[in-house]
Amino acid sequence: xxxxxxxxxxxxxxxxxxxxxxxxxxxxxxxxxxxxxxxxxxxxxxxxxxxxxxxxxxxxxxxxxxxxxxxxxxxxxxxxxxxxxxxxxxxxxxxxxxxxxxxxxxxxxxxxxxxxx
Amino acid sequence: xxxxxxxxxxxxxxxxxxxxxxxxxxxxxxxxxxxxxxxxxxxxxxxxxxxxxxxxxxxxxxxxxxxxxxxxxxxxxxxxxxxxxxxxxxxxxxxxxxxxxxxxxxxxxxx
Lengths: 117, 111
What we know:
- The structure holds two protein chains of two kinds.
- Chain A is mainly beta.
- Helix content of chain A is 0%, strand content 51%.
- Chain A is built from no helices and eleven strands.
- Chain A has strands at residues 5-7, 10-13, 19-24, 31-38, 42-50, 53-57, 64-68, 74-78, 87-94, 107-108, 112-116.
- In chain A, the strands form two sheets. In chain A, strands 2, 4, 5, 6, 9, 10 and 11 form a seven-stranded mixed β-sheet that branches.
- In chain A, a hairpin with a 5-residue loop joins strand 7 (64-68) and strand 8.
- Chain A starts with a strand and ends with a strand.
- Chain B is mainly beta.
- In chain B, strands 2, 5, 6, 10, 11 and 12 form a six-stranded mixed β-sheet that branches. In chain B, strands 3-9-8-7 form a four-stranded antiparallel β-sheet, with no helix packed on it. Chain B has a two-stranded antiparallel ribbon with strand order 1-4.
- Chain B is built from no helices and twelve strands.
- Chain B has strands spanning 3-5, 10-14, 19-21, 24-26, 33-39, 46-52, 60-61, 64-69, 74-79, 88-95, 99-101, 105-110.
- Classes of the chains: A mainly beta, B mainly beta.
């Protein structure tokens, strides 16, 4: 069974641009969560999607948005990029049959390294 | 707000020895889950072990075990017979409705 796939692996953008990251979950998993990892702030929860609906979100500005498609694939978008958005963005999927994804085992992708210049 | 604290930014252990990574958390909830995740240089987070708060028995997975002290809000990870492949960042995580991670402990294995 293929794992969680994130594309692209690396991305370089300039301030003010926007970016879209993609995540394909493990087959059969319906929940996708996104995390931002930086040396200063560590790992922070962005949002979680289940069955195309955002079910939970962290404390990030509205420039960070996401969506989930009917095949459970998810995209994350960041508009008007700032230097502080440089980070490793991790996606995780889980079965999440009941409750929220957090209590289910999450399987992570290798991440997308975003650099904002 | 819930918080997770890992007080050891870095640790080293001799190969084949035992090492314990510390984690404390703060919550007023009684029903939650705790996890230890490992992040090797490949960056992919891997679940090491999971503990349900309502279970008093400490979770064990092969060479990895936890010491869960609910009253003290402590959740340490013990790695026995350390191997070179155990070198990684280890994150403690608390979850009730969303996951909150600690800052991580970088573990070095000395040959």
